[in-house]
Amino acid sequence: MAKFEPPLYLDNAATTPLSPAALEVMRPYLQERFGNPSSLYRLGRQAKKAIEEARATIARALGVLPQEIYFTSGGTEADNWALRGIIERTILERGPNFWAPQGGAVLLTSQIEHHAVLRCAQYLERFFNLPVSYLPVDREGRVQPETLQAELGPNATLVSIMTANNELGCLQPIPQLAQRAHQAGAYFHTDAVQAVGHLDLQIPQLGVDLLSASAHKFQGPKGIGFLYLRQGIEIEPLLHGGAQERNLRAGTENVAAIVGMARALEESLRHLQQRNLHLQRLEDELLRLLREKGVPFKLNSHPPKLPGVLNLSFPNCEGETIQQRLNLQGIAVATGSACDSHDFQISHVIKALKLQREYALGAVRIAF
Ligand code: PLP
After folding, report:
1. Most buried in the list 277, 305, 310, 330, measured by CB within 10 Å?
2. For the chain, how far is it from start to end, CA to CA, in angstroms?
3. Using one digit for the tens of pLDDT, what is the confidence trace for 246-263?
4. Which domains can be identified in the chain, with CATH numbers?
């Protein structure tokens, strides 16, 4: 029988394996502690207590209050809720088309957001005729605070800029961007799905009003995440029904996943420094080997960036072909371009960098 070779998984920005410690704390809530947290007898209360302990753990790790954490089904839901929740509440308060007399964008975001933000912004444009501004980025993939400032008009209600980009790993200057938004009277949301559990993030220092996170990016289970909502800010619910999550997010809680997420976050942060040093060594070694072997490439990830995430362009190569060839060798990486039947589709993130076509087609993301 052929010897089983474990695959070399270099796509940890797509998802991560569940940590054994998270699995262990989840197991009882899938079996003997199966109670519904809304039930008032012991089994229910036990589940409720586990949820509230998990909420407190997550809040403590991020320097905020437990009642500012709302559990969601993941990053996509948290992003959609942040955008729709703020915009719909504002329209209810100020009336439809409140922006019409003065004009200018109500929602401001960037061209390199994850589709969970971009597609939701497009939905709001279509559904409410909402004016949205999609801010360009510089050659390193960063939104310059001056670029945001120039677009902040009297109707600016919500700015949504991601903490770390999922294709490039680049970090945005969130405190400076949030400050500009606040000066203009707008709320600031950040999609921190790639950053939570990988950087020492303290929400008060970021200065954001809303923040999205997802457990499966930091060795927690899939299908669970949270939205941080600063106390005092009112948003519309995304899901209507029961009274869960302080009447804002209906549906019986995924107790096991919530407990697993808190455990995974704790663990991920405990080993942060040590792990990031290791990731830096792996990055350095890969770049050294590529240079030593004379492989031409261009680095699309520039510091400050996520540890362990490298986006490289191999000129005159096709990212998808590289990905498929590596796959045959048991190596998993992601690419910023994919071939449909007629042409190459370059990702919106790579397009926003305005790379020459020969480089744009050959972009590959390696996430150690
Ligand atoms: N936002 C970013 C930056 C992401 O990288 C992802 C996942 O790839 C998401 C949002 C969506 O998160 P989820 O998979 O939990 O819905």
Report:
1. 310
2. 30
3. 999 999 999 999 999 999
4. 22-269 (3.40.640.10), 271-367 (3.90.1150.10)
